[in-house]
Amino acid sequence: MKLASLRTANCRDGELCVVNQALTQAIKVGHIAKTLQSAIEHWQAVEKPLQEIYQALNEGQIQSTFAFKPDDYASPLPRAYQWADASAYVNHVELVRKARGQKCLPIFGPTP
After folding, report:
1. Position with higher pLDDT, 106 vs 7
2. Long-range CB contacts (within 8 A, 24+) of 64-69
3. How far apart are CA 64 and CA 18, in angstroms?
């Protein structure tokens, strides 16, 4: 199954589309999941209907398709959630290690 995030003016996460195997046709599937992030979060509920649309799309059974133009699409998850910690301040290291359930190493006291 090929999923893509169509750029839109009203949603920074893009609009979820299913793209055929040949990468020539697409269809909007906002009635199933508005965004790829939403689809991932509700995968058990949306996988089957998305797979059915993908199969029908590849078999030419869907009339409401449009030409797939890669330049019209954003990255699959334009605003993916991430928490990255690159700090080396002692208090930050202590907090991160505490959050992981780990003790702070003794070296972090005298050596920041």
Report:
1. 7
2. 64/27, 65/20, 65/25, 65/26, 65/27, 66/25, 66/26, 66/27, 67/24, 67/25, 67/26, 68/4, 68/19, 68/20, 68/23, 68/24, 68/25, 68/26
3. 12
Q: Which two tokens stand for residue 17?
A: 């589309």
Please tell me the predicted confidence (pLDDT) of residue 46. 98
* Contact criterion met (CB below 8 Å) for 79 and 36: no
The pTM assigned to this predicted structure is 0.72
Question: Residue 29 in contact with residue 15, Cβ under 8 Å?
Answer: no
DSSP string across 65-82:
-EE--GGGEE-SSTT---
Distance CA 8, CA 14 (A): 6
Alpha carbon 29 to its chain centroid, in Å, reads 15
